[in-house]
Amino acid sequence: MQTNKAVNLIGIVGAGAMGSGIAQIASQAGQDVVLFDLSKEALTTSAAKLQKVMIRLIEKGKVTSDEAIAIQTRIVRTTKDTSLKDCDLIIEAVVEDLEVKKRVFKRIEEIVKKEAVIASNTSSLSITSLASFCAHPERVIGLHFFNPAPLMPLVEIIPALQTNRVIPQQLTELMSKWGKSPVIAKDTPGFIVNRVARPFYGEALRMLDEGIADASNIDEAMRASGFRMGPFQLMDLIGHDVNYSVTESVFKSFYYDPRYMPSITQLKLVEAGWLGRKSGRGFYNYNEENKEPNASAQLNPKAQVEISERIISMLINEAADAVYLGIASAEDVDIAMLKGVNYPKGLLVWAEELGLQKVVSIIDGLRDTYGETRYRCSPLLRELAAKGGNFHK
Ligand SMILES: NC(=O)c1ccc[n+]([C@@H]2O[C@H](COP(=O)([O-])OP(=O)(O)OC[C@H]3O[C@@H](n4cnc5c(N)ncnc54)[C@H](O)[C@@H]3O)[C@@H](O)[C@H]2O)c1
Known about the structure:
Number of helices: 17
Low-confidence stretches: none
Bound molecules: nicotinamide-adenine-dinucleotide
Strand order of the largest sheet: 3-2-1-4-5-6-7-8
Number of strands: 8
CATH topology of the largest domain: N-(1-d-carboxylethyl)-l-norvaline Dehydrogenase, domain 2
Helix content: 40-55%
Order of helices and strands: EHEHHEEHEHEEHEHHHHHHHHHHH
């Protein structure tokens, strides 16, 4: 995939949830795809799932039967990795394990042509580290799709320190052609979304632990401010094992910055096997008729607003700091949270609506109450609030 060269053939390594979804997106955009997996069963399941999706799309009138057939036939499934040899762009979506990914990258490099770009869909591993194991690190990049990939528009493009500077732009154009919303993120833990979203869970858990409100009250407060789901509902949906391990990994990667501290309450749910919807119980009980946890009392509107503004202010602070530290532009941070996790508004637009001064005073109020570095205001947010400026010039 060199400058001005067409991307004719896409290779995908790993036909699990993500690899299959990415193959569908590429094929729907008219690309020929080679989908490779070591497991024949994974490939068979992937084909069967795509067929079901296509039947649904035909029923909804979104594709014709001819298009559905074309989408399915453009994807060639194989257990032979040598079939990737003519691919211009290879997207790796195997298990989240650095050792496995290192081996996969080494093997891909042995097979593909020298101009091919090799991307990883990793959610948490360092792209720079992955690139460093390659003979040609300059063609390695992160291409992070969200689950379910065909439905979530966001793609985070993450150049490694070593990546050739033309590749992010080429992938931005390609992802736009595929109908996606690409953003560029610096190679740092959690990239944009998994970093900026931490307070949505962390601050909610903190308020629960302090007895400020119970889970259903906090969820209701967040729904009232426009989120489709409250933090506890969402953690139950994601699974506490997954959500806890992402938080733990971000916390460790940031050298134990208290802002990202995981919650013991969530750890207890993991230990109990109360993983959320998938196990029938998490913060909510999905086995019984009454699925809501018992709310002690309806919160008054003022308390509701205080809860939602505390979480939103902490999210805004995280978003502002991501801009301050050059992780991404203000525009890209807003796009990421809108298109990757369906936030009702871009956080930095939200900051401007709430008033930057107000957000700063909420965070300073928390700092004064707790005396913890967790509640430190981003210098950029403070500076813009003082100047009467805003994030979107
Ligand atoms: N699931 C999510 O919500 C999500 C979201 C964004 C990114 N990701 C990332 O995407 C990647 C894949 O995740 P997933 O949920 O699709 O995993 P998955 O377990 O559903 O699928 C992984 C697939 O990789 C195959 N595989 C394993 N080793 C292989 C090898 N050496 N060569 C070829 N195929 C191999 C497995 O057979 C399996 O089919 C991970 O890096 C994950 O962090 C996942």
